[in-house]
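Hey, can you fold this one?
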Amino acid sequence: MKRDVIYTNGLVIAADNSGSIGEKPGDHVKADYETVGYFSARVALMECLAAGGEPFAVVLQNFASEAAWEKLATGVKRAVHEAECTAELTGSTETNFTMSESAVSITVIGRHVREVDQLDEKTVCYGVMGKPLVGPEVISEAESVASLSLFRQVLEVEGVYSVLPVGSKGIVHEIKTLVGREKRQIGAFYCSLNLNKSAGPATCFLVAANHSSVPKLREMSNGLYTPLDIQFG
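Sure. Predicted structure:
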């Protein structure tokens, strides 16, 4: 499966960015910078962990303002703690020019510690943890966002073959990535969630697991597990 990371020299490198979300008058979505930092780091941390990495460094590129750094850093550190990582934080702030909109970029570097994506097609079941949300919904429906701590717990459940954060292209796009476009022809999907909606800062993630693991996943999800039936052609 192709993932949105780089594997090199025993490392897994993941990145994410945020634009026009923050405290500036020109921002499309209004949010405090701690929240912006948290959700920006969240996506890259999830990508790194899902790809078999154990994060040890986070790089924050701040284009919002020098005054925004502390709040952004606090949000990043909160995400690192929630993901049960010990990553150090470094980064840089643009101070030569002032932008009318906020912009943030996050890079996460982790050690490649485990292999992923070894699915048993005879026993695999698919599901979604959380709900696809974007923009102001991420704040107003926070109870439907799959937490980083839940993500970490799912990774460690026996019988879980693979997890994959869902981004702006929606669940369907990530399903095709998870299953593999070249290997099997997908006929149809059955799920109560909107499969084409953006999940913004990875507010939900896909799980591929042995069917015997599903009761455990349901139990630990606190109502956030939604079954996903994939029909192959």
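The helical segments are 33-50, 69-82, 137-140, 148-155, 170-179, 214-221. Let me know if you want another pass with a different chain boundary.
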